[in-house]
Structure of Big defensin 3:
Amino acid sequence: MERKSFLSVFFIVLLVSPASILAKTIKEEGETRNKRQAQILLPIASYAGLTVTAPVLAALVAAYGIYAVTRYAIRKRRIVMYSDSHSCANNRGWCRESCFSHEYTDWANTFGVCGSYFCCRPY
């Protein structure tokens, strides 16, 4: 009987002792996780107040979350298009918001082909 009670006490000690070790390990792991998160957030600070392209903004949102991106006031770049990217006047002109100095506005092709832009043709 002595042997059984000794083994029982021994196994109880083995079962209880890892709890305090495991608690310390979990606490240290939580602290290192917080430190790693703080280190990871340093690169987003370099984008603070900047305007970035859409793919970069999507990557930042995926990596850091929308809250961090808005907190650092990171915005998406607006692309202003000065042409609607097609030719007019049988490939002799280009649709633009305004014509260059070496071009003239072809009024015959402007409304039907270019919409709200002008058909600009070289002189």
Summary: Strands lie at 51-52, 75-76, 83-88, 93-96, 103-105, 118-122. The helical segments are 2-40, 42-45, 54-64, 66-71, 107-114. The first helix runs from residue 2 to 40.
